[in-house]
Specification:
This protein is an alpha/beta fold. It is built from 15 helices and 13 strands. Bound molecules: ligand F0G.
């Protein structure tokens, strides 16, 4: 379909064939050609400084949706969605912290961490999920589903519970952190373990979901991307719209890389920014098809059989490849792969600095270290590392850190000698 003028505030465009649809579409992919879609917005109609002021006033506003760190930016997220359809916790409003000890260890004077583990279900996924589940409800969905390495499922389960929708999750059997499964199950979602990896789960679900009337909320769903943009708007707001030189993040299925890039390009187009930070997407060495793609200027689409102990990013065939490639190109970004040892080493530093995160999240800081060592990132550059998930999401004890004291007898004497 195509729109008469004037256009609605937001609409959906197929990135492959350009076909357009309304934001109430029940189709996750383009209904003409099956391509991935993108949400577009009319410019918000206020100059940048006025928009910034509006968002600032909402930080202290206790109104239902505006206190959300996603819906506070609704003019940039999904302005056309009516308030009664919004399913919110609320989410976002996560801290942007500076820890001297961590900055020193990484060798970057102004290194800040955006602690997305402080979202309601413990990961950044809540930002995308509030929008995807709200849109699903508005479009009349009867049930929602996703494939997941654990965080998307926990988030979807919670937002489906808030919306009163049944939820189905496909997970790679035996490859998801137990805490994430427990969280997903507790919230009432139905878990279907699959004999295969994450990529197989997503392929399977994409094939079957549309035929059984189940609404898919993985990040191929363009409304997930809109919500996940909010982390970048929030970082910019916390930095008083003076962007850092670099934003680093872990990369798996590439939805987040795509979202952060789209947020930056839109912020510039709408007068909120005049300079873009460079994006640094970091993959685990055993799950690094996008880093291989970056190395050949994205001339070919790489696929691998993924292996890494950072289970959240154990993904070999990322769905948002093209969107993320645009984000990297447009921000003059970098994509690198780091070994698991470097990820766990960075996690130790983050945990000991009093922040804490799950293993996959620490890839961002591990990546900053590599680019600092190469000199691509300068000591004086301001860098934001996004920590995507909470420490308790995947608390597998680190063998290098286990003190493994045997239990002591309950006597003062035994305690004195243990403390000594
Ligand atoms: N960090 C964490 C903690 C994640 O859970 C994920 C993805 C990523 C980073 C990568 O983000 O896929 O947008 O590039 N987890 C998905 C899930 C795949 O199912 O929870 P991405």
């Amino acid at each position: 379909m195509s729109f008469e003028t004037p256009r609605p505030p937001s609409w959906v465009v197929c990135q492959a064939c350009g076909d357009e649809d309304t934001i109430l579409t029940p189709h996750v992919r383009c209904r003409s050609c099956g391509g991935l879609q993108e949400v577009r917005h009319r410019a918000p109609g206020l100059p940048g400084p006025l928009l910034r002021g509006l968002f600032n006033t909402r930080c202290c506003h206790r109104g239902d949706s505006e206190v959300s760190g996603v819906w506070r930016f609704k003019e940039l997220i999904l302005p056309g969605l009516s308030e009664e359809n919004i399913v919110r916790y609320p989410e976002g409003n996560t801290p942007l912290v500076f820890r001297e000890r961590l900055a020193e260890r990484v060798g970057v004077e102004d290194l800040r961490c955006k602690v997305e583990g402080m979202n309601p279900t413990g990961s950044f996924k809540d930002r995308g999920m509030t929008v995807a589940v709200s849109q699903a409800r508005a479009s009349g969905a009867r049930a929602v589903a996703c494939a997941s390495t654990g965080n998307t499922s926990a988030s979807m389960a919670t937002y489906a519970a808030l919306a009163g929708l049944p939820a189905f999750v496909l997970v790679p059997a035996g490859q998801v952190a137990p805490a994430k499964l427990a969280q997903t199950e507790a919230t009432g979602a139905h878990i279907i373990p699959v004999e295969g990896d994450f990529d197989a789960c997503l392929r399977l679900l994409e094939e079957v979901a549309p035929t059984v009337g189940v609404h898919l909320v993985n990040s191929i769903n363009p409304f997930r991307i809109e919500g996940q943009k909010a982390v970048m708007f929030e970082i910019l707001q916390q930095m008083e719209w003076d962007p850092p030189e670099w934003v680093a993040l872990p990369a798996g299925n590439l939805g987040n890389t795509a979202a952060v890039g789209k947020a930056l390009l839109e912020a510039r187009a709408w007068g909120l920014l005049d300079r873009l930070p460079r994006l640094l997407a970091v993959q685990a060495e055993g799950a690094a098809p996008f880093a291989a793609g970056f190395a050949d200027q994205f001339a070919t689409r790489h696929r691998v059989t993924a292996t890494t102990r950072a289970t959240a990013i154990r993904i070999g065939d990322p769905a948002s490849w093209d969107r993320a490639a645009t984000a990297i190109r447009e921000t003059h970004g970098e994509v690198i792969a780091v070994p698991d040892e470097a990820i766990f080493e960075a996690k130790r530093e983050i945990d000991r600095a009093g922040i804490g995160c799950e293993p996959a999240s620490a890839a961002s800081v591990a990546g900053v270290r590599v680019l600092r060592a190469r000199g691509t990132i300068a000591a004086a550059d301001r860098v934001v590392a996004i920590l995507t998930g909470h420490l308790l999401k995947d608390p597998t004890p680190d063998p290098a850190r286990m003190t493994s004291l045997p239990p002591i007898p309950a006597t003062a004497e035994a305690l004195r000698s243990a403390l000594a």
